[in-house]
Amino acid sequence: MSGQKFDNKIVQWVDERLPIFSVLKESAVDYPTPKNLNYWWNFGSLAGFMLVVMILTGIFLAMNYAANTAIAFGVVEHIMRDVNYGWLLRYLHMNGASFFFICVYIHIFRGLYYGSYKAPRELLWALGLLIYLVMMGTAFMGYVLPWGQMSFWGATVITNLFSAIPVVGDYIVTLLWGGFSVDNPTLNRFYALHYLLPFVIFALVFLHLVALHTTKSNNPLGIDVTGPQDTIPFHPYYTVKDLVGIGVLLLIYLAVVFFAPNFFGEPDNYVPANPLVTPPHIVPEWYFLPFYAILRAIPDKLGGVLAMFGAIVILFFLPWIDSSKVRSAKFRPIFKQIFWIFLAVCLVLGYCGSQPPEGQIVVVGRIATAAYFLFFPLLWVLGKIEKPKPLPQSISAPVLKGASAGHAAQKMEKA
């Protein structure tokens, strides 16, 4: 029997037999949320919104796509020109991937800044990184489907990286290709996986939310909730805040879709795939560029592959690498500076990945790669030597203090 009571008799009847409405009410309406969450906490829900957009547009695009190397490029053009609103679906899907990654990257860096990976949220952090990894695989396979020049050569270069793995590397590449070169079996496999993996992401997001509701939300102060005075119900306070965020996101997202739909794309991908003509500069999508720069920074092929994958794997160990007991960077002055340097390093890596590997770019890429990996041992040392600022006694304390100061200022004005 459900513990919740609903005014609607039909809802109550269903809930007594299948308590879906009770679960929704507990997790999305009455869920106690820290009262001091700022707009940086919007990006988790915005990423979820973009996931739904990607799945829906992907399903409709799949109804008109054919995974055959002889016609794939032409089919995409058919979708753009002949299918009703096909151009809109494709531009929403194509640019949606970029906005999905933007939301996820901001969400990750917010978690890093406010220490959301620390105990007891280690598993929550790990599930978030798993979502990110599956997203990367899904995006890479989706990039191959238009079967343009960059699709073909990007698939060739990236899948060839696995051949650097000793003993089993060549077998992995052959398995991915479905033969001995990137061809029709490769396109078929990537299409099937690209359709499947978003539903895997959806399942991981569900587990991520379960873990979040078990360990409860972090907050900008990085301290635990001390009682009911520190929380407010999720609805209506944060649902309204999320709707504002979705409105702003849609303004920017749709502006790109309608006015600059190819802003994030590569011109070479509007040329049909040709195995006999190599593009002068092969680059992946922008959201892979930092890792591509790390790959190229190591002269050895196997070393580059290990560094590239290691740059992601090391993030899983962040809860144990960071030895500080204080979560939020608001109370860690040295860590705050190191964080912004680390963010700048990631942006530099992204720029280096977008440029041809020659001249000073190679040197800058190697320095940035070294700085990226140096961040993690430095984080451990910093936790031992840094003296953090004193933490407030509760989440409510700074809020009430600010309110008291405001009332005092108003009294002085009146006087």
UniProtKB/TrEMBL annotation:
Molecular-function annotations in GO: metal ion binding; oxidoreductase activity; quinol-cytochrome-c reductase activity
Cellular-component GO terms for this entry: respiratory chain complex III
Cofactor note: Binds 2 heme groups non-covalently.
Ranges for domain Cytochrome b/b6 C-terminal region profile: 224-393
Entry membrane topology: Multi-pass membrane protein
Residues that span the membrane, as ranges: 39-67, 88-108, 123-145, 157-180, 192-212, 243-264, 302-321, 333-351, 363-382
Protein name (Swiss-Prot/TrEMBL): Cytochrome b
List of residues binding a ubiquinone: 213
Keywords (A to Z) from UniProt: Electron transport, Heme, Iron, Membrane, Metal-binding, Respiratory chain, Transmembrane, Transmembrane helix, Transport
Domain Cytochrome b/b6 N-terminal region profile: 10-221
Binding-site list for heme b b562: 93, 194
Subunit architecture: The main subunits of complex b-c1 are: cytochrome b, cytochrome c1 and the Rieske protein.
One Pfam assignment: Cytochrome_B
